[in-house]
């Protein structure tokens, strides 16, 4: 499955409405691509509580209460069976027919109504007509109790599925919907509580201990600790200093604080994340798409097979009895219902998305859960992925005044957000900087500009080579990251910068190898530095001194060799490589808007170990989805054969159908309890 095939998914509804609309329109006939006119919408508007309302409004208890007609029907059936079969009290035929017709109508009137409206529109092959045909057939041959039982247990199966959909949606919504609905804003006339969407950039907001931050802000208080678990999946408190960014969804832990709003409510990182995960439910995995197409073909086939079972024996069986073979055809119809597949598989993928989200991993679609199971090569950037990206100045060497050298360099670097540039700026924290002019960023090289009337170049050695500036050759031997500086066309000195490898990076590489995955590191840093880090972590291959186009060439070479790869980087500078990879994984999604836009998978807490967790989430999801497929198909195949041979009755058929659906649903829920 190529990335290009997955990036343009079929757009549907987000989690809040997708299953509700689909199932209100189709029950459990999840065929794709049908057009539903207004009459069809009216047919399936189950807001009155008497049909299959998968919207889940009002919760599970109200959903159960709304099915009063179903429960009354079940009471009538069980009472009749108790009296006639267990107590063996004779029941006259008119009374039996009256009771069973009443129970049948109470349980299935909505299904029957929809079936007839579908038939009027020449839509014969759907679940409603399948169940109506089978149950009316049972009444025709005098098996009243069995006909009622089929309809009741079909409706109970629908109820189980409604409850499952509700639970799935609630678990994901509870996981993600962490935005507060009010915020306290500091005004001249006093504090005022408003809706976060009414706050504007620059407002000062007050957050008490235990409260959630409602908007992306800047911390005005000297320091504060926050619980970031809702965003990163990390329970360890994060302490921030004055001036640090604080994101919506974080929980203030220890003291009242003041924050200055920096981003509108709709543009906050949290809002983007919520939108991304909601959209993820619309991006279907190939398995889901296959099952949808399969159900569309499968239903008419079983109708004709049931008809053949009923009619064809007339030409080959000497003692042919129509009612006997009609009964076998009805058993075939009941057991062929594809409910277990068409509901448990989407639930499985929703569970996978929820499992990953709880661990700070955001998938942009269930299709990428499948992609991660097939990855055999993981290509990683170095800075910010395997290393902390928090650089610190180690040494300053210059043939001019050190303070002047640093002031000029930091002034030029002040226009850059690169971690190396930030290290130089932080080293000059609190000191006055100049405003640079005519600044030009040269990709993969560094910066060019004017500071205080002087022409400056600041970057790597390739930058000086590009402008034919000579420098001491011995500095090529320095393994640390360096910023070399030229002033007015002459080499002026260098600054060494040190980065730090992330604590879990080595274990992440070891876990990838345990899964049989090849590891590769691509870096724009010097090759000597790249090789040193690769050796320390045990990475299989490493390449340094790479410009963005060099990374693309390396990744393309792996693709040409037939590798299925994921690229892990910052999602911004490495956008071309992210697009080329089968799955683009972004580290540090909370720090970059562009990351959320470009990556297929976002790891929110920057931990390399979560790359392996993402793979495990995909493997767990895929395993359980295929367990459900095999379970459903195997049981149905066995009971279909037994039904066609006259061994299985309608009772076995309906219990097998509902039972398999329930087992598949429960199995799908196991995903959310897994550890990755």
UniProtKB/TrEMBL annotation:
Biased amino acid composition, Acidic residues: 34-43
Segments of skewed composition (Basic and acidic residues): 1-33, 44-55
Enzyme Commission number(s) of this protein: 7.2.2.12
Keywords linked to the UniProt accession: ATP-binding, Cell membrane, Membrane, Metal-binding, Nucleotide-binding, Translocase, Transmembrane, Transmembrane helix
Compartment(s): Cell membrane; Membrane
Positions of the UniProt region annotated as Disordered: 1-59
Cited Pfam families: E1-E2_ATPase, Hydrolase
Protein name: P-type Zn(2+) transporter
């Amino acid at each position: 499955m190529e990335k290009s095939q997955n990036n343009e998914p079929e757009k549907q509804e987000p989690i809040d409405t997708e299953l509700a609309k689909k199932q209100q329109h189709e029950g459990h006939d999840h065929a794709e691509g049908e057009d539903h006119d207004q009459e069809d919408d009216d047919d399936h508007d189950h807001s009155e509580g008497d049909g299959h309302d998968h919207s889940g409004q009002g919760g599970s208890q109200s959903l159960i209460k709304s099915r009063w007609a179903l429960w009354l029907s079940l009471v009538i059936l069980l009472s009749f069976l108790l009296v006639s079969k267990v107590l063996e009290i004779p029941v006259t035929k008119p009374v039996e027919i009256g009771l069973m017709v009443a129970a049948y109508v109470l349980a299935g009137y909505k299904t029957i109504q929809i079936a007839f409206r579908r038939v009027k529109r020449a839509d014969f092959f759907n679940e409603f007509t399948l169940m109506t045909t089978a149950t009316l057939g049972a009444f025709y041959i005098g098996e009243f109790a069995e006909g009622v039982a089929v309809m009741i247990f079909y409706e109970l199966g629908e109820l189980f599925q409604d409850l499952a959909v509700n639970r799935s949606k609630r678990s994901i919504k509870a996981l993600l919907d962490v935005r507060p609905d009010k915020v306290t804003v500091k005004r001249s006339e006093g504090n005022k509580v408003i809706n976060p969407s009414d706050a504007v950039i620059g407002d000062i907001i007050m957050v008490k201990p235990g409260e959630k931050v409602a908007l992306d802000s800047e911390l005005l208080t000297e320091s504060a600790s926050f619980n970031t678990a809702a965003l990163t999946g990390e329970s360890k408190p994060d302490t921030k200093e004055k001036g640090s960014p604080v994101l919506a969804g974080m929980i203030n832990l220890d003291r009242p604080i003041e924050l200055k709003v920096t981003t509108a409510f709709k543009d906050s990182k949290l809002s983007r994340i919520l939108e991304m995960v909601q959209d993820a439910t619309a991006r279907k995995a190939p398995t889901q798409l296959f099952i949808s197409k399969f159900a569309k073909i499968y239903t008419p086939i079983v109708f004709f097979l049931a008809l053949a079972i009923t009619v064809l024996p007339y030409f080959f069986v000497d003692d042919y009895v129509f009612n006997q073979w009609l009964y076998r055809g009805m058993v075939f119809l009941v057991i062929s219902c594809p409910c277990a597949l068409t509901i448990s598989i989407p639930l499985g993928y929703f569970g996978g998305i929820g499992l990953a989200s709880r661990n700070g991993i955001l998938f942009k679609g269930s299709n990428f859960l499948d992609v991660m199971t097939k990855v055999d090569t993981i290509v990683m950037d170095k800075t910010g992925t395997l290393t902390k990206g928090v650089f610190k100045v180690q040494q300053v060497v210059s043939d001019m005044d050190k303070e002047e050298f640093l002031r000029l360099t930091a002034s030029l670097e002040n226009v850059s957000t690169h971690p190396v540039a930030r290290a130089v700026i932080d080293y000059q924290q609190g000191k006055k900087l100049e405003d640079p002019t005519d600044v030009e960023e040269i990709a993969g090289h560094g910066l060019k500009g004017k500071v205080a009337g002087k022409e400056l170049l600041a970057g790597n050695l390739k930058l000086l080579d590009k402008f034919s500036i000579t420098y001491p050759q011995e500095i090529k031997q320095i393994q640390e990251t360096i910023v070399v500086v030229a002033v007015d066309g002459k080499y002026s000195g260098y600054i060494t910068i040190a980065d730090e490898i992330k604590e879990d990076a080595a274990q992440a590489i070891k876990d990838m190898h345990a899964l049989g995955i090849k590891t590769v590191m691509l870096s724009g840093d010097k090759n000597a530095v790249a090789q040193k880090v690769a050796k320390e972590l045990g990475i299989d291959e490493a390449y340094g001194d790479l410009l963005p186009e060099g990374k693309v060439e390396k990744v393309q070479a792996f693709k040409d060799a037939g590798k299925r790869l994921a690229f892990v980087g910052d999602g911004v500078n490495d956008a071309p490589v992210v697009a080329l990879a089968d799955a683009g994984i972004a580290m540090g999604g909370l720090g970059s808007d562009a990351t959320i836009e470009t990556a297929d998978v976002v790891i929110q807490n920057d931990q390399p170990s979560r790359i392996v967790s993402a793979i495990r989430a995909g493997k767990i999801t895929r395993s359980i989805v295929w367990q459900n497929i095999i379970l459903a198909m195997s049981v149905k195949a066995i009971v279909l054969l037994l039904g066609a041979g006259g061994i299985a009755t309608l009772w076995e058929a309906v219990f097998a159908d509902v039972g398999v659906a329930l087992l598949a649903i429960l199995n799908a829920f196991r995903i959310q309890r897994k550890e990755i």
